[in-house]
Amino acid sequence: MTEPEQRGWMRSFGVLVIFAGVGPLVGSIVVYAWIGVSQALTAMLTGQWAQGLEMVAFAVSFGVLFTLPLGYVLGLVPALAVGLAVLWWERRSARGRQGLSARVAVVAASIFWVAVVFFRGVSISGSWDAWIGAGSSFSALVVSAWVCTRIARRVC
């Protein structure tokens, strides 16, 4: 393997490490922010503003501190899939010469979310909790894909 080829593969490995390391962390923060905000909105609609803000802070801190291993278990495969899609786009397309594409990352994350919802048969027709779960998982995928791409552009 020549020197430029080796650097290319090392860069690709670095991008995947960023997606695998940062993606589930950002996704966990986003999911628990969604949960906290949904609980806080319920409290705030009844006039309890201080309690609502406490709920957001508690949900995010609890989620990040105590359920982060679960976030990595559930988020590692989507993070690697989106990272591979971004790298594939960069290597195979003429536009790839411009660098890693946040747009491709967001589209890949959205497609991954639709595939998971379709294959799991998730119904969001009635329950508020199902809407919160679907919204939080979609937001987690999209936000973490965008953040990881931005970090990888700066670092790699």
Automatic annotation (TrEMBL):
Q: Which UniProt keywords apply?
A: Membrane, Transmembrane, Transmembrane helix
This chain's protein is named: Uncharacterized protein
Q: Where are the transmembrane segments?
A: 12-35, 55-88, 100-119, 131-152
Taxonomic superkingdom:
Bacteria
Organism for this UniProt entry: Orrella marina
